[in-house]
Amino acid sequence: MEAEAAKYIGAGIACLGMGGAAIALGTIFGNYLSGALRNPSAADGQFGRLVFGFAVTEALGIFSLLIALLLLFA
């Protein structure tokens, strides 16, 4: 019984990473948009970094979901 509760608590804590990823994505895109509006000629040069930051942040959110699922079902 206690082990079952510990699994659910651990999975819930692991899912907090997905919320952090969502906040980070908002920050990444917000800062890109702010910089692109201030200097439109440099926006194209920063787009690759934007996509890389999006991919890394999204991967961290997916990894936290994977850890939660492993805690629940493994």
TrEMBL record:
The lineage of its organism: Bacteria, Pseudomonadati, Pseudomonadota, Alphaproteobacteria, Rhodobacterales. F-type ATPases have 2 components, F(1) - the catalytic core - and F(0) - the membrane proton channel. F(1) has five subunits: alpha(3), beta(3), gamma(1), delta(1), epsilon(1). F(0) has three main subunits: a(1), b(2) and c(10-14). The alpha and beta chains form an alternating ring which encloses part of the gamma chain. F(1) is attached to F(0) by a central stalk formed by the gamma and epsilon chains, while a peripheral stalk is formed by the delta and b chains. It is found in: Cell inner membrane; Membrane. F(1)F(0) ATP synthase produces ATP from ADP in the presence of a proton or sodium gradient. F-type ATPases consist of two structural domains, F(1) containing the extramembraneous catalytic core and F(0) containing the membrane proton channel, linked together by a central stalk and a peripheral stalk. During catalysis, ATP synthesis in the catalytic domain of F(1) is coupled via a rotary mechanism of the central stalk subunits to proton translocation. Key component of the F(0) channel; it plays a direct role in translocation across the membrane. A homomeric c-ring of between 10-14 subunits forms the central stalk rotor element with the F(1) delta and epsilon subunits. Belongs to the ATPase C chain family. GO terms for cellular component: plasma membrane; proton-transporting ATP synthase complex; proton-transporting two-sector ATPase complex, proton-transporting domain. The record marks E58 as: Reversibly protonated during proton transport. It comes from the Bacteria. Residues 9-71 form the V-ATPase proteolipid subunit C-like domain. The keyword Transport applies. The chain crosses the membrane at residues 9-30, 50-73. It is a multi-pass membrane protein. GO terms for molecular function: lipid binding; proton-transporting ATP synthase activity, rotational mechanism. Its main location: membrane. Keywords: ATP synthesis, Cell inner membrane, Cell membrane, CF(0), Hydrogen ion transport, Ion transport, Lipid-binding, Membrane, Transmembrane, Transmembrane helix, Transport. This is ATP synthase subunit c. The keyword Chloroplast does not apply.
